[in-house]
């Protein structure tokens, strides 16, 4: 088996009394797009700075490509870092910013110019070579920072919230570009973000961090569909608790056709017995429900309806006492007339296959 691009063992870092990294083990594969996802203060930047060599760990080791680099200086490691604020040199034009690392490594002038222009072509900025950073937009500066790191052809590129300063539209565009760039270059990316959607969109695998510890490592689908802990269930997307199981809001189907719903129903929802009994509630209005329905259901009353264009959010108080959020795509509903369902009796249904369990409690979804 080839050595991991990045291998971290028993990593700890304390700042005074603050335990920023509290025992982290990680193996990141060659060519992987790997994300570290966690809330502010969870230790993401500290782990990244330790991999880069800007910070010395209190304990533990870092290997790059099978070599222990724990004691090596940043410039002796085959990594480059892209920071959130880009850290471009304002007095140098774009091409000189990109060349900088090659110049430090004494690459001959003609070669480094050629490679810098090539890197700029890679981020579609070769027409901007003579500009100063302040003459560029935020997205363009971000691409210069990427070119400046990629020109050194590192084995591992570390990215600390590199899209954090961009507005939503540009961030989404850059996500697509970043992913394409990583595939093309075949470089291992270690990408730090607090944005769960960004992590799920971009990554081959995600590590979810909380308070200096890794809660779960897995593919986006594993982390989202099968959260290992209550923290992951609450931080990566939102989750409902129904009895002793959890179900994602978009996996709940709301049947608002209340005509056949009996308020005094014997429905047991997801409490374990779950699902329709023989000839039970499944014979109701959802009998022909198809894809949206499920083999588990519960009755409740709509506490709130929020129309959000593409989707509608229902907040439903189940008769069992659980409050759940259900997200319904507005496939057929094209107006705000969903609002009239506030206060209505509804049946929530879902598939047992979409249930998951996590130990402990997590915060209920917001009202
Ligand atoms: P994140 O990047 O996930 O927001 P950080 O790694 O920056 O988290 O920080 C983790 C914890 O370590 C925080 O509590 C932060 O305040 C603390 N910390 C980080 N760097 C330092 C430092 N140089 N001195 C003191 N405390 C620090
Ligand atoms: Mg940070």
Automatic annotation (TrEMBL):
Residue span of region Disordered: 257-295
Keyword Transferase: no
PROSITE patterns documented for this protein: ABC_TRANSPORTER_1, ABC_TRANSPORTER_2
InterPro entries: AAA+_ATPase, ABC_SmlMolc_Importer, ABC_transporter-like_ATP-bd, ABC_transporter-like_CS, P-loop_NTPase, Transp-assoc_OB_typ2
GO cellular component, one term: ATP-binding cassette (ABC) transporter complex
Gly residues bias locations: 261-293
Gene3D superfamilies xref list: P-loop containing nucleotide triphosphate hydrolases
Gene Ontology molecular-function annotations: ATP binding; ATP hydrolysis activity; transmembrane transporter activity
Signal peptide start and end residues: none
Record-annotated ABC transporter domain positions: 6-236
Keyword annotations of the record: ATP-binding, Nucleotide-binding, Transport
A Pfam family the protein falls into: TOBE_2
Name listed for the protein in its UniProt record: ABC transporter ATP-binding protein
Organism expressing this protein natively: Actinomadura rubrisoli
